[in-house]
Design brief:
Layout: E1 23-33, E2 36-44, E3 50-58, H1 63-80, E4 85-90, H2 93-100, H3 111-121, E5 126-131, H4 134-142
Parallel strand pairs: 1-4, 4-5
Antiparallel strand pairs: 1-2, 2-3
Helix pairs in contact: 1-3
Organism: Chenopodium quinoa
Protein name: RNase H type-1 domain-containing protein
GO molecular function, one term: RNA-DNA hybrid ribonuclease activity
Length: 143
């Protein structure tokens, strides 16, 4: 996992296709209550063209759980597609920090999900994590 590219500065980052040779995974999750939560994502190639996507319902207790499960689902799809170089773009700055240092959050209520996602990130591939403003993430996933 390559974490050097993440930024949480106040300047907005405009969505761009992934770097040459990479695919990009954008995910988001939403939560209203235990029975009304879900997540989704899209995978695009270096030209910015849609390659795959998903929408899933979850039974979870928080928006953070929904966002993490959406990331896990997206990573599983990318792995099954045999994508070897991936940019993961998330709108949750706290999640990007959790994923860069999962050991610090193992005793957290989300520890199991964080461990699952960390294990996926540590497989034999290159995943770079980026932080993006939430408003832009919503726009990207709805278009």
């Amino acid at each position: 996992m390559d974490s050097a590219a993440s930024s949480s500065s106040s300047a907005s980052r405009i969505w761009a296709p992934p770097h040459r040779g990479y695919f990009k995974l954008n995910t988001d999750g939403s939560w209203m209550n235990l029975e009304n939560a879900g997540g989704g994502g899209v995978i695009r190639c270096q030209k910015g063209l849609w390659q795959d996507g998903f929408a899933v319902n979850f039974n979870v207790a928080s928006a953070t759980s929904a966002k993490l499960l959406a990331i896990r689902e997206g990573l599983l799809i990318a792995w099954k597609r045999k994508i070897e170089i991936l940019e993961l773009e998330t709108d949750a700055d706290a999640l990007s920090k959790m994923l860069k240092n999962p050991e610090a959050f193992l005793d957290n209520d989300l520890g199991n999900i964080i461990r699952d996602v960390a294990a996926l990130l540590n497989r034999n591939w290159k995943v770079t994590i980026f932080f993006m403003q939430e408003e832009l993430a919503t726009l990207l996933l709805t278009n």
